[in-house]
Amino acid sequence: MNSFRIISVFLVVWSAFVFIGNSHAETQMDMESALFQGQPMQREGSGTSWLPDSTSMHGHHFKSGSWDFMLHWNVYLRYTNQDAGSDGTRGNEKFDAPNWFMIMGKHQLGDNSALMLRSMLSLDLLTEGGKGYPLLFQSGETWHDRRLIDRQHPHDLFGELSVSYGLATAIDSGLFLYFGLPGEPALGPPTYLHRPSAQNNPDAPLGHHWQDSSHVTFGVITAGYFYKQFKIDASLFNGREPDEKRYDIDEPRFDSGSIRFSMNPSENTGLQVSHAYIKEPEVLEPEVSIHRTTASLIGNYSVSRDSRLSTALVWGMNKPDHGKAQNSFLAEADYRFGKNALFTRMEFIKKSGEELGLDEGREHDLFSISAFTLGMSRTIYSSHHVSISIGALCMVSPVEHDLRRIYGELPFSVEGYLRFSPVMTKTMSDNHIEHMGH
Predict the structure, then answer these.
(1) Domains: count for the chain
(2) 217: which strand partners?
(3) What is the pLDDT of residue 425?
(4) Which one of 88, 275, 347, 389 has the minimum C-beta count within 10 Å?
(5) Range with the lowest mean pLDDT among 8-22, 68-82, 262-276, 346-360?
(6) CA-wise closest residue to 376 among 397, 394, 358, 401
């Protein structure tokens, strides 16, 4: 890592401390959703997606005049070593700092309506560089007009700049309208950055571009309606993935569409199914559009007074206009008990030879990818404003025969990190008060 990147990493952490040091965190909060009037704020996921009502949260809640604000953020100081045993030829290692910062403001316009402004920022380009971080079997987006392979791309400086409006039509129903530049369309589950089941894993899922990669879309408008535990929303949005200029606002286009049905059958469970037509998502394949279908089941369960289990099952399929459908499956869980957490992720994906950078002649063949991750973390410091935890994980990836000359037979990867995040807050509901940790 060069000196510039080292300085950038420390600036990210320092900026977080300065920001939260000047805010006034409240240890108890009782906020209603701005989008979904009359519903708990915990239900809000990324974009207009739903999480279970019992979802844990952490963040800084503060007021300014008639506005309610909430700040969420995560910074990892990390060492990652992909293919640590040098089983294949694609391994790499890196010191880096994946990070994101999100602030949302809610203004109640009356008894039945509210306005919400939301922004999400990331300094990944400084801390990761244009090629992002090494991650075996990962694919998606480009750097210097070349496909990124075995690397996770950095996020844009602006991951979300959105405005939304919620209107109650009855005690338990309402309409909502959402616009983002960038924003997230009505497609897929809440992105992995906001899923409690992934809160201690700094890696993007290998099926990210099959499941929830549309969370940064430059140009999206969504309208929807909810009734009690049911919601339907639909979007027009820009199908093209973000370009390599990570600091700018890409030109919005409304050439793609999606529809999603969501249901929270209990306070501990969230379901969704969605489908989209995405026009020419990849810049290197300007004439290839895809149909994406997803389904997910998210759970959040209180095991005891000081322990909680968060889970997610996600399926995503990309079907190009011409070619074979590619499926992806993900199962992940995070079990928090006291100051400790155990977490896991299992993935099964079909990827093409082109996405894996194979020789000409095999670019259209599909290959089975699997990966199994197990990790643990422990909180080592907690104040009124910041929580610091130390964590480690290991990922193993059994390799099918045709890929072993490149990846080896059983490459394993290891990571260690310090995670900086807001402290847990207390959330009051009609039925209970409990510690939250989103």
Answers:
(1) 1
(2) 183
(3) 57
(4) 275
(5) 8-22
(6) 394
For residue 381, with 0-12 CB atoms within 10 Å meaning exposed, 13-18 middle and 19 or more buried, which class applies?
Answer: exposed
Exposed / middle / buried, residue 4 (Cβ in 10 Å: 0-12, 13-18, 19+): exposed
- Partner residues linked to 105 by β-bridges: 69, 117
- To the question of pTM greater than 0.85 for the whole model, the response is yes
**Cα(370)–Cα(412) distance, rounded to whole angstroms?**
12
- Residue 175 corresponds to which amino acid? L
CATH number for the domain harbouring residue 52: 2.40.160.10
Query: What pLDDT does 30 receive?
Result: 55
Q: How far apart are CA 119 and CA 117, in angstroms?
A: 7
Number of CB atoms found within 10 A of residue 107's CB: 14
Alpha-carbon distance 42 to 329, whole Å?
26
Q: Which segments within 228-365 are labelled E, that is strand?
A: 230-237, 256-266, 269-278, 290-304, 307-320, 326-337, 340-352
Compute CA distances 123 → 10, 116, 273, 289, 295, whole Å.
11, 24, 32, 30, 31
Beta-carbon contacts of 320 under 8 Å, excluding residues fewer than 6 positions away, are: 288, 289, 290
Q: Which of 22-31, 250-259, 376-385, 409-418 has the lowest mean pLDDT?
A: 22-31
DSSP calls for 152-209: EPPPPSEEEEEEEEEEEEETTEEEEEEEETTB--S-SSS-GGG-GGGTT--SPPTTHH
Q: Which tens digits make up the pLDDT trace of 35-60? A: 999 999 999 999 999 999 999 877 88
* Phi and psi, residue 198, nearest 5°: -115, 10
* Distance of alpha carbon 408 from the chain centroid: 30
Judge whether 75 and 12 are in contact, CB under 8 Å.
yes
Two structure tokens written together for 35:
């989008």
pLDDT tens-digit map of 262-305: 999 999 999 999 999 999 999 998 899 999 999 999 999 999 98
